[in-house]
């Protein structure tokens, strides 16, 4: 029997922490987890999952509009934000319960309070109770960054967006990344006037340029306004409760009802006692770990967004699983960060895996590019001009597909399957050898020219 209260103490019951807890327990470890808010973490409680439900809910606006061209008359259709909001939040409650059940059924002890590290093998709970563990895992995730500008306290972040009392008539979203474009699509569909204001001259840095240009074009056609090279200067609350957002771009301020900051997320490594026990951090506050998720302190590990390697839920889950197998399952293993697919659930969504065209040009002596610019059948009948665009990037030396990027309806669903082929190192010829599944949008992938 160990001298410690637990074999593993996990701080943070999000995607990475819950997976690590469950798998470590299944390997026979005595596990405890502390969560100061709600079990499930950002993805389940205030991120990917409720966001995707809002995406579904908002897309009905377009579908109902298009329905007429498919012979349907939909008179008197009205939208009620509170119905959608409350149904989404109710499902979040359900998922929160399922995550708690997972912990309980694996005999993981849950402390519903904040925990900080007070020694290499000790944590102290908010109640003052001290708990010891052979291994401590930090899985506290990340938190929205709000720029330090006058009046910033009048804005919200995606955390609050799920709880709004009413649908705002006019929204300004600061930032041009994932969250900005996803919420712009949601609010725009639901009828709000949306402006995306970003500090630089581009949106979605890191995505293939051609794909993100298409998103910007389609979003603009749908009514979303982009204000680029517009760093936020200050925000004022007016007597009628509306906000005035000022930018350092020399143009007039924008009057709106809600300002939402979507300006990145920082690792939640602060105020956890980590500096005091000597855990090393990177310049941006991420916990520095090795390939096995171990920090410079032998008994302390970290996984997920707090390590700021790839801020994506499935990556945190894999890191948590690999950590538990390594430390408690006698199977040391690392995870592969190569060819991680990702998607932006904008309207339309975009998705990609592997190198962008720019990256491929920088890294390979010669590349070949194949594209398809098409109008999905559904959009044709709907009378919508909106086009889809797929792009395949190959290493010219061996025909291997090194990048695949797309924008269009259901592109995340299509890309997930195609990512298997890219990860497996298949070639353009392998795609061409596969018979098209007709009629589908995905068939464009095996017909690329
Ligand atoms: P992103 O990193 O995607 O984008 C941040 C945006 O904010 C960029 O446009 C950036 O501008 C701008 N920005 C950054 N710092 C500042 C600052 N100090 N002041 C003003 N503007 C700033 O962040 P998000 O907040 O949208 O999302 C956070 C992370 O969450 C994502 O990186 C992603 O990993 C994850 N996520 C994933 C989703 C998915 O998988 N579908 C959905 C939502 C989030 P610029 O680029 O011009 O410098």
Give a verbal description of the structure.
By secondary structure, this protein is an alpha/beta fold. The protein has three domains: 6-144 and 266-328, FAD/NAD(P)-binding domain; 152-263, FAD/NAD(P)-binding domain (3-Layer(bba) Sandwich), CATH 3.50.50.60; 348-446, FAD/NAD-linked reductase, C-terminal dimerisation domain (Enolase-like, domain 1, 2-Layer Sandwich). The protein contains 13 helices and 22 strands. Strands 1, 2, 3, 4, 5, 6 and 17 form a seven-stranded mixed beta sheet that branches. Helix 3 runs antiparallel to helix 4 (81-105) and helix 3 (48-67) packs parallel to helix 6. The protein starts with 5 loop residues before the first strand and ends in a 16-residue tail after the last helix. The mean pLDDT is 97. The structure holds NADPH dihydro-nicotinamide-adenine-dinucleotide phosphate. Residues 145, 147, 175-180, 182, 198-200, 205, 262-265, 311-312, 342-345 line the site of NADPH dihydro-nicotinamide-adenine-dinucleotide phosphate.
Indicate the topology.
Elements: E1 6-11, H1 15-26, E2 31-34, H2 41-46, H3 48-67, H4 81-105, E3 109-111, E4 115-119, E5 122-125, E6 130-138, E7 142-144, E8 156-157, H5 158-161, E9 170-174, H6 178-190, E10 193-197, H7 209-221, E11 225-227, E12 232-237, E13 243-247, E14 254-256, E15 258-261, E16 265-267, H8 274-277, E17 300-302, H9 313-328, E18 342-344, E19 350-354, H10 357-363, E20 367-374, H11 377-382, E21 388-395, E22 401-407, H12 411-423, H13 428-433
Parallel strand pairs: 1-2, 1-6, 2-3, 6-17, 8-15, 9-10, 9-15, 10-11
Antiparallel strand pairs: 4-5, 5-6, 7-16, 12-13, 13-14, 18-19, 19-22, 20-21, 21-22
Bound molecules: NADPH dihydro-nicotinamide-adenine-dinucleotide phosphate.
Residues 145, 147, 175-180, 182, 198-200, 205, 262-265, 311-312, 342-345 line the site of NADPH dihydro-nicotinamide-adenine-dinucleotide phosphate (NDP).
């Amino acid at each position: 029997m160990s001298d410690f209260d637990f074999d593993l103490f996990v701080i943070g019951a999000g995607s990475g922490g819950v997976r690590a807890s469950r798998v470590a327990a299944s390997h026979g470890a005595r596990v405890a987890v502390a969560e100061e808010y709600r079990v499930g973490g950002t993805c389940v409680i205030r991120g990917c999952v409720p966001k995707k439900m809002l995406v579904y809910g908002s897309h009905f606006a377009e579908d109902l509009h298009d329905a007429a061209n498919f012979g349907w008359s939909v008179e008197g259709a009205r939208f009620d934000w509170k119905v959608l909001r409350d149904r989404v939040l109710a499902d979040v409650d359900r998922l929160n319960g399922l995550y708690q059940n997972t912990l309980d059924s694996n005999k993981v002890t849950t402390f519903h309070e904040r925990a900080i590290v007070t020694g290499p093998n000790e944590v102290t709970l908010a109640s003052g109770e001290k708990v010891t563990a052979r291994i401590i895992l930090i899985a506290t995730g990340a938190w929205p960054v709000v720029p330090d500008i006058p009046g910033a306290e009048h804005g919200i972040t995606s955390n609050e967006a799920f709880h709004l009392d009413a649908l705002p008539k006019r929204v300004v979203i600061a930032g041009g990344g994932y969250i900005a474009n996803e919420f712009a699509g949601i609010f725009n569909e639901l009828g709000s006037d949306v402006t995306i204001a970003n500090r630089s001259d581009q949106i979605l840095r890191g995505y293939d340029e051609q794909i993100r240009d298409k998103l910007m074009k389609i979003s603009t056609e749908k009514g979303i306004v982009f204000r680029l090279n517009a760093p936020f200067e200050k925000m004022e609350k007016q007597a009628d409760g509306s906000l005035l957002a000022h930018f350092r771009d020399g143009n007039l301020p924008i009057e709106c009802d809600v300002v939402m900051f979507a300006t990145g997320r920082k690792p939640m490594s602060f105020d956890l006692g980590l500096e005091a026990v000597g855990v090393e951090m990177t310049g941006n506050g991420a916990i520095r770990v090795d390939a096995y998720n171990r920090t410079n302190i032998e008994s302390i590990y970290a996984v997920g967004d707090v390590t700021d390697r790839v801020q994506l839920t499935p990556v945190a889950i894999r890191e948590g699983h690999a950590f538990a197998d390594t430390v408690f399952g006698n199977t040391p293993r690392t995870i592969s960060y190569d060819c991680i697919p990702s998607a932006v659930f904008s309207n339309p969504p975009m998705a990609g895996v592997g190198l962008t065209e720019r990256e491929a040009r920088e890294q390979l002596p010669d590349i070949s590019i194949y594209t398809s610019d098409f109008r999905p059948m559904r959009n044709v009948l709907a009378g919508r001009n909106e086009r889809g665009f797929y792009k395949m990037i190959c290493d010219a030396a061996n025909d291997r597909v090194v990048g695949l990027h797309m924008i269009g309806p259901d592109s995340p669903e299509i890309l997930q399957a195609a990512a298997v082929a890219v990860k497996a190192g298949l070639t353009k010829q392998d795609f061409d050898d596969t018979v098209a599944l007709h009629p589908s949008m995905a068939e464009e992938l095996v017909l690329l020219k």
